[in-house]
Amino acid sequence: MLSIIILTFNSKEFIKSCLDSVFAQDYRDFEVIVIDNGSRDDSTSFIKNNYPQVILIENKENLGACKARNQAIDIARGKWILTLDCDIILEKDFFKKVISFVEKSTESVGMFQPKILNMDKKTIYSCGIFLSKLRRFYDIGKGRADNGRFNNPKFVFGACSAAAVYNRRMLEEIKEDSGYFDKRFFFLVEDVDLSWRAQKKGWKAIYLPEAVCYHFGNSSDSDKKLRQYLCFRNRYFTILKNKETMSLLKLVYSLFIYDIPHMVYFLFTNNRFSAIKVIKEIFHFPKVYDR
Predict the structure, then answer these.
(1) Is there a contact between 31 and 45 (Cβ–Cβ < 8 Å)?
(2) What is the b/e burial string over 30-60, where b = at least 16 CB atoms within 10 angstroms of the residue's CB?
(3) What share of the chain is helix, strand, coil (3-state, %, to 5)?
(4) How far apart are CA 94 and CA 90, in angstroms?
(5) What is the tens place of the pLDDT at every residue in 14-34?
(6) What's the CA gap between 117 and 124, in Å, rounded?
(7) pLDDT exceeding 70 applies to what percent of the chain?
(8) CATH fit for domain 2-215, picks 3.40.50.2300, 3.80.30.20, 3.90.550.10, 3.40.640.10
(9) pLDDT digits (tens, 9 = 90+) for 78-98
(10) Partner residues linked to 55 by β-bridges
(11) CA 275 – CA 232 distance, rounded (Å)
(12) DSSP state of 99
């Protein structure tokens, strides 16, 4: 069985297209779990009235993408977990392509990354996560034309959780006190952290270009200052968590080329979250939980 986990937050505008694309699939051995993070529109009533077959979890407030996904994984029955953002639309043969590839995969593969295109169906949103030697991570192919360059399956560092397939056995093996997805991240970069933990345990991720879906992007209309703050903070959370060791030369190079300029930019452009707040949270992060 495949368990599909979808997050909603004020998502009525998008959830119909997403769920319709799920239930239009020819492959039928699946369950759908929707976690609503305290929507103030009528997303939940719309789902209840139109999709009674959906398992709906209603949170009273926004608990963040990580904690919400963890709630759904806890009750999911599938051997494989497909996480979807609510603004994802699947191609009609998406499940068939995924299951066909999954069944042929080796025991060590714990993640599958479909090809995620933007809604224009011409440009790439993500073909998986890439981790550089300077410990920068980004979506492979993001913003580039889908011109055939990204049509070959290959191993990647990790899967973008906007649309990612996870092996349940892998998730149980890498689960921490803070969950499958680390709830301390709230949202953003949590999929990098999960992928990193999986890699350290010997699990692999494969990009699967035959399975295609389309992504609107930032459907929750989250505050840009909040996203900037979380991206900056969670990058260091991820590096600290995974006990990353870098040579002094690489560390100094990274600081001067990438980190310090970003810190200065953050300092002068984000008037909602101070750089001091971010630095304090980064330095106190390892003490939040005893592991």
Answers:
(1) no
(2) bbbbbbbbebeeebbebbeeebeebebbebe
(3) 40, 25, 35
(4) 6
(5) 999 999 999 999 999 999 999
(6) 5
(7) 86
(8) 3.90.550.10
(9) 999 999 999 999 999 999 999
(10) 33
(11) 10
(12) H
Q: Which residues make beta-bridge pairs with 4?
A: 32, 82
Taking 50 as the threshold, does the pLDDT of residue 288 lie above it? no
Which pTM value belongs to this model?
A: 0.89
- Rounded-to-10 torsion of CA 83, 84, 86, 92: -140
Sorted by where each begins, the domain ranges of the chain are 2-215, 224-287
Residue type, 162: A
CA angle 70/74/77 to nearest 5° reads 125
- Give the pLDDT confidence score for residue 52 in this predicted structure: 97
**Cα 184 from Cα 176, distance rounded (Å):** 11
Q: What is the pLDDT of residue 248?
A: 46
The pLDDT > 90 percentage for the chain reads: 70
CB 194 within 8 A of CB 83: no
**What does the block give as tokens for 209?**
């270009």
Q: What pairing do the DSSP bridges indicate for beta strands 204-215 and 109-118?
A: parallel
pLDDT reported for residue 270: 72
| Mean pLDDT for the stretch of residues 153-177 | 97
Strands (DSSP E) found in the chain: 2-8, 30-37, 55-59, 80-85, 88-90, 109-118, 124-126, 129-131, 137-139, 154-156, 163-167, 204-215
DSSP 198-240: HHHTT-EEEEEEEEEEEE---TT---HHHHHHHHHHHHHHHHH
How far apart are alpha carbons 109 and 122 in whole angstroms?
A: 29
Cβ contact 162:116 at 8 Å: yes
